[in-house]
Amino acid sequence: MLSKRMQELEEVSKELLKVLLSDWADNLLRRSLDKRTRMDNKLLLSQATATQLVKELSTAEETVAQNLLERESQLQRSLRRLRDLEEELELEELREESRRLEEDTEREDDAVPSAAYVTQLYYKISRIDWDYEAEPAQIKGIHYGPDIAQPIDIDSSRHSRCFVSDYLWSLVPTAW
């Protein structure tokens, strides 16, 4: 069996040798080499094209990145300008409000007597010197009546407002 296989292998080898030595094999080999050369050329061309496309893509990415940075910078400047305008507008509104308040205060100053004047007027009428450091529920002071000074000490939480008012008015002299 081994010899039969050896014999078959020998025959195949002879046939291959004949083919290799013939012109047909030479033509086949040339065509294969030409085909390989064309494929190599196409591969090199494809690689060159791919390299060019990568360069162009890189350039386009850089351009887009630069444009994006410029747009971001413009956006930041616009946002700063918007904040500045909002602050200016708010400041202008505050100035206008302040001006209105000053005008109102001037009008009120003209129409309403000062607190010092009112306090002096109340003292001249009532002759009561108030203790402003007393507790909030305590009404304290000294009434300087026509004959004698009289202390005032009323717990407003124990008496009605009406009682407190009537009592204080009773201290004011009615004879002018």
TrEMBL record:
Keyword Nucleus tagged: yes
Compartment(s) where it occurs, according to its Swiss-Prot or TrEMBL record: Nucleus; Chromosome, Centromere, Kinetochore
GO cellular component term of the entry, any: nucleus
Main localization category: nucleus
InterPro entries tied to this protein: Ndc80_Spc24
Coiled-coil residues: 65-111
GO biological process: cell division
One Pfam entry name: Spc24
Assembly behavior: Component of the NDC80 complex.
Similarity field: Belongs to the SPC24 family.
Function: Acts as a component of the essential kinetochore-associated NDC80 complex, which is required for chromosome segregation and spindle checkpoint activity. Required for kinetochore integrity and the organization of stable microtubule binding sites in the outer plate of the kinetochore. The NDC80 complex synergistically enhances the affinity of the SKA1 complex for microtubules and may allow the NDC80 complex to track depolymerizing microtubules.
Protein name: Kinetochore protein Spc24
Native source organism of the sequence: Grus japonensis
